[in-house]
Automatic annotation (TrEMBL):
<feature type="domain" description="Peptidase S9A N-terminal">
    <location>
        <begin position="37"/>
        <end position="414"/>
    </location>
</feature>
<dbReference type="InterPro" id="IPR051167">
    <property type="entry name" value="Prolyl_oligopep/macrocyclase"/>
</dbReference>
<dbReference type="Pfam" id="PF02897">
    <property type="entry name" value="Peptidase_S9_N"/>
</dbReference>
<keyword id="KW-0732">Signal</keyword>
<dbReference type="InterPro" id="IPR002470">
    <property type="entry name" value="Peptidase_S9A"/>
</dbReference>
<keyword id="KW-0645">Protease</keyword>
<keyword id="KW-0378">Hydrolase</keyword>
<dbReference type="InterPro" id="IPR029058">
    <property type="entry name" value="AB_hydrolase_fold"/>
</dbReference>
<dbReference type="InterPro" id="IPR023302">
    <property type="entry name" value="Pept_S9A_N"/>
</dbReference>
<dbReference type="InterPro" id="IPR001375">
    <property type="entry name" value="Peptidase_S9_cat"/>
</dbReference>
<dbReference type="Pfam" id="PF00326">
    <property type="entry name" value="Peptidase_S9"/>
</dbReference>
<feature type="signal peptide">
    <location>
        <begin position="1"/>
        <end position="30"/>
    </location>
</feature>
<keyword id="KW-0720">Serine protease</keyword>
<feature type="domain" description="Peptidase S9 prolyl oligopeptidase catalytic">
    <location>
        <begin position="510"/>
        <end position="723"/>
    </location>
</feature>
<protein>
    <recommendedName>
        <fullName>prolyl oligopeptidase</fullName>
        <ecNumber>3.4.21.26</ecNumber>
    </recommendedName>
</protein>
């Protein structure tokens, strides 16, 4: 799945004002043009040209050489921007002032608490534990130790504690690759049990109720000559007893294991358990869309030669999340409810038609997620870029709103055993530091889990929600952030940011870099164009496959709005998209290049026609379509930035960002697009390929890597908007 990567965009004010000089943007130093090697395919009667197909063989020495030259050139040009080093310093400074970063809090029965923590000034997240909210903190896993030993960044990808708190399963990968191996840690001794298990990339881990064994999803090893698109096919759910070797694990679910269930090769399975339930739930997705199969069986059946799985639902039933409690299975679905609802099914009679609604979305809001407590259901309710909490008790399908200390986005923390009546959640805001709170009834208090530093000295920020009329009259929600008193004279450096895939929406969060950009007089515009889920499934489907053009047409409308309202001009407007947001940014730029001074294509999917031949690309057919399908091919060709670049066109300055170890969007997407833009543009503005040899999709990047990337992005934009100069060679 092409998950959105959160880039902390950080800047002190005196440092920035000293370099606030208007300057004409200058083209970057020229690099060697990539040779054209014409390849043409005839797809469903259409001739599709691909002059840089050879870049898909990233291991080719000539391709490696070109990539290195591009990366080195970009590094030299970025380092010459006068503001760049000050930006990186300011990023680290503001980030340090926000305190420790704590994520993934999991609260187990017996008051055992686990979480990931990146301490102030540290590079990477560590796995921590404590007994009780005020208990002493203890480090369980520090990936920096391995990074120092090998010289390669390591990251914890996931962790799942056992119900009894004696063990925790966790995954670690290197160099941003996300190619995680599974480890099992003895919490008391701090030592690993058994050997690492390779190719366990996701947190599809299920501890059995007795905590003596667990299940996990493992990818198959590729054989010599296997296509990369085989990577995620035919995965297996394995059952392992703690202390056994990986060779002793037993396959219990998957397309090649449970062959009578009608699973497709891309159905990736997980088994869900709960200590208070006799049942286990097998769930599949294609790793991209959350809908899939659900099956139920008795946990005791794992000891039998075959498990008697009973089917509950399939993709067409539109179930996107589940949770298990006793005899009841709770189902989040958009079937008959575009803004979602929660159903409850008694597993003693596991027929979906018998499920009953227990939670409905309020009018004009979206029920995005839910969590079960000991005696209630708590839901996350989206209201634009904000998320509020709502409590549903037995018989109350409408629920009761829960007040929050400030307006922002609430995110429920994990209570997988449903052991508590109170709830831990984190509240984050555009202008508020994240706080982790304990909710009892309707009262939120600070449980002392994180230290709350004072807010750094920053300007007063306006947060304005607007609705922009698109080409067809659809009203597109956009949130603007800027310094109070901003003059709308078109001179403000302005960045339009969009994602718009999988139904993911732009959401309020505090970014030190964003504050620094605003501190400098900049404007940030977060657009929830069609393809996001800000208004539920209907809005998402309006930017999906054949309707995907709405995504970038909405983007163009938002850009025109920012110009018409005096926030920016085409000389001071930039646009950015990340990952699947590459379609948003790439096609917005290729549709209306005259609107922008600069653009950031950040680990973007750029060639949607060829994407499905890659390892992760095949998993995204359900989101974007297949070029092999004559009905879906036209939309794929239209949404492909690479194929819509036109010769002799005055494109804005573009910086393409990528990590060489990216497992989600292969680096050749950016390489092919950079080469094509460099050959096609007539503007004289730079087309740069910024590469990180020890990064991937951004998920495993260290704090240092993130700071450097943010400094590069913002200094590039300011340079091309004429706000700063480059130093002479």
């Amino acid at each position: 799945m092409l998950l959105p990567t959160l880039i902390k965009r950080p800047f002190t004010l005196p440092l920035l004002l000293a370099v606030a000089v208007l300057a004409a943007p200058v083209a970057a130093h020229a690099v060697a043009a990539a040779p054209v090697q014409d390849v043409s395919d005839v797809l469903h009667g259409v001739t599709v040209k691909d002059p840089y197909r050879y870049f898909e063989n990233v291991k080719d020495p000539k391709v490696q050489s070109w990539l290195k030259e591009q990366g080195d050139s970009a590094r030299k040009e970025l380092d010459r921007i006068g503001l760049r080093s000050l930006l990186e310093q300011r990023i680290a400074e503001i980030s340090a002032a926000t305190g420790d970063d704590i994520r993934g809090i999991t609260r187990m029965a017996g008051d055992h608490i686990y979480y990931l923590k990146r301490g102030r000034g540290e590079k990477q997240f560590k796995l921590m534990t404590r007994d009780g909210l005020q208990g002493a903190e203890r480090v369980l896993v520090d990936p920096e130790l391995e990074a120092k030993r090998t010289g390669v960044p390591h990251a914890i990808n996931y962790f799942v504690p056992a119900w009894d708190g004696k063990h925790v399963a966790y995954g670690v990968s290197a160099g941003g690759s996300e190619d995680a191996s599974l480890y099992i840690l003895d919490v008391e001794t701090g030592k690993t049990v058994g050997e690492p298990i390779p190719r366990v990339h996701e947190a599809l881990i299920g501890w059995l109720p007795d905590s003596k064994s667990l299940t996990y999803n493992q990818l198959k090893p590729l054989k010599p000559g296997d296509a990369e698109s085989e990577t995620y096919l035919d995965s297996k759910v394995m059952w392992l007893k703690v202390g056994d070797t990986a060779a002793q694990a037993k396959p219990v679910f998957g397309p090649t294991v449970t062959t009578d269930l009608g699973l497709a090769r891309l159905d990736v399975g997980a088994i869900i358990f709960n200590p208070g339930s006799r049942w286990m739930i097998a769930r599949t997705t294609d790793t991209t869309l959350p809908e899939g199969y659900l099956f139920v069986a008795d946990v005791a059946d794992l000891n039998k030669p075959t498990v008697a799985w009973k089917k509950i639902s399939s993709f067409d039933d539109k179930i996107t999340d589940v949770d298990l409690k006793g005899n009841d299975l709770y189902l989040l679905t958009h079937a008959g409810a575009p803004r979602n609802r929660v159903l409850k099914l008694d597993l003693r009679h596991p027929e979906l038609k018998l499920a009953r609604e227990v939670a409905a979305a309020p009018a004009d809001a979206v029920l995005e997620k839910f969590s079960l407590t000991r005696d209630a259901l708590i839901a996350e309710i989206r209201e634009g870029t904000s998320i509020v909490l709502r409590r549903y008790t037995a018989g109350d399908t409408k629920g009761q709103s829960i007040p929050a200390p400030f307006k922002g986005a609430a995110s429920l923390q994990n209570d997988p055993a449903h052991a508590y009546s109170d709830v831990l959640y984190t509240l984050n805001g555009w202008t508020e530091l994240p706080r982790t709170l304990l909710l009892k009834g309707k009262v939120s208090s600070d449980p002392g889990l994180r230290v709350n530093p004072p807010m750094p000295s920053l300007p007063e920020v306006e947060v304005v929600d607007v609705k922009v009329p698109s080409y067809d009259g659809a009203m597109v929600p956009m949130t603007l952030l800027y310094k109070k008193g901003l003059k709308r004279d078109g001179s403000n450096p302005t960045l339009l940011d969009g994602y718009a895939a999988y139904g993911f929406s732009q959401t309020a969060y505090f970014s030190p870099a964003s504050m620094a950009w605003i501190e400098r007089g900049g404007v940030l515009a977060y657009a929830n164009v069609r393809g996001s889920g800000v208004y539920g499934d209907d809005w998402y489907r309006a930017g999906f496959k054949a309707t995907k053009p709405n995504t970038w047409k909405d983007g163009v409308a938002c850009a025109k709005y920012l110009i018409a309202e005096g926030y920016a001009t085409p000389k001071t407007l930039g646009v950015m998209g990340t990952s699947a947001g590459g379609i948003f940014v790439g096609r917005t730029v290729t549709t209306a290049p005259e609107l922008f001074a600069a653009a950031i294509f950040n680990v973007g999917i750029m060639d949607t026609v060829r994407a499905e031949d890659s390892a992760n690309g095949i998993t995204n057919i359900s989101e974007f379509g297949s070029a092999k399908n004559p009905q879906e091919f036209p939309a794929l060709l239209e949404m492909s930035t690479y194929h819509n670049i036109k010769d002799n066109t005055a494109y804005p300055a573009v910086m393409l960002v990528h990590g060489m170890n990216d497992p989600r969007v292969d680096v050749w997407h950016s390489a092919k697009t950079a080469a094509r833009l460099q050959a096609a543009t007539s503007s004289g503005k730079p087309i740069m390929l910024r590469l990180d040899m020890q990064a991937g999709h951004g998920i495993g990047s260290t704090a240092t890597q993130r700071y450097a990337l943010s400094a590069d992005i913002y200094s590039f934009l300011l340079w091309q908007m004429g706000k700063v100069k480059q130093a002479d060679n």
